């Protein structure tokens, strides 16, 4: 059991607002102008920002830090979250497909977390998997701009899938906040 003195000191890279992850001028999630018009562009904007937030929470860490499981008995790690979200992007594509489901990326249940080991090749592969699966899901959904369209064997609405994706990323970005603070003490929105 870790003692309080074993915990890393809390810190933020931000200097303007110390409770933020990055200064507003340096935060790639900040966009100029007004928010997007329309439901689909708004959902896509939220999705983009949560994806970017996950990457930001992982940046600057080495393979050991990314694979570290700092909250026992949980097997959750930042690298595990990257692998998990690659897996669920593929699962979402399976939901909207009429064809045979694509196989799991990492094998049996929880293999996305169990296989998140401190190896640079595993880290690089996880990021490549995530980018590929995100692009494939985005492309599949781009073919259906009407949010009311029902897809796949279960007839899931595009809107429901979009909202579920945002919810999944938002929840895991919250996990990433806590995991990152445990790894090196960095905090912020």
UniProtKB/TrEMBL annotation:
Pfam families: MST. It comes from the Bacteria. Signal peptide: none annotated. Residues 1-42 are annotated as: Disordered. SUPFAM superfamilies: DinB/YfiT-like putative metalloenzymes. Transmembrane segments: none annotated. This is DinB family protein.
């Amino acid at each position: 059991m870790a003692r309080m003195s074993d915990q890393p000191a809390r810190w933020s890279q931000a200097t303007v607002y110390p409770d933020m992850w990055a200064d507003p001028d340096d935060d790639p999630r900040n966009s100029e102008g007004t928010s997007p018009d329309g439901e689909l562009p708004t959902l896509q904007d939220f999705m983009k920002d949560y994806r970017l937030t996950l990457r930001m929470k992982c940046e600057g860490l080495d393979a050991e830090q990314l694979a570290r499981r700092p909250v026992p008995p949980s097997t959750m790690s930042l690298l595990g979250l990257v692998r998990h979200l690659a897996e669920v992007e593929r699962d979402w594509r399976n939901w909207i497909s009429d064809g045979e489901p694509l196989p799991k990326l990492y094998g049996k249940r929880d293999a996305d977390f169990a296989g998140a080991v401190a190896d640079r090749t595993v880290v690089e592969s996880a990021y490549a998997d995530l980018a590929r699966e995100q692009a494939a899901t985005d492309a599949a959904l781009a073919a259906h701009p009407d949010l009311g369209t029902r897809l796949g064997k279960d007839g899931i609405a595009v809107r429901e899938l979009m909202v579920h994706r945002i919810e999944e990323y938002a929840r895991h970005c919250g996990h990433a906040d806590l995991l990152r603070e445990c790894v090196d003490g960095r905090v912020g929105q």
